[in-house]
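Meet our chain:
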Amino acid sequence: MEKFKKVQEVIASVEADIAKFYENGNAAAGTRVRKAMQDLKGLAQEIRAEVTEKKNSEK
C-alpha cells in the first residue's frame, strides 16, 4: 500500500511540469516528466510483483 501512495506522490509532484511542457513547450519540464514516468513504471512493476506474490501465496 505504501508503494501506491508513492505513485500518488510522484503524480502530484509532476503535475506542474506536465502543464509547463504541454502548455508552454518547456523542454526541461518535458525531461522531468519523462523521468517521473520512468519512476512510475518502476513503481508499477514493483506493485505488480507484490500483488502476484500475495495472490499466489494465498493458494
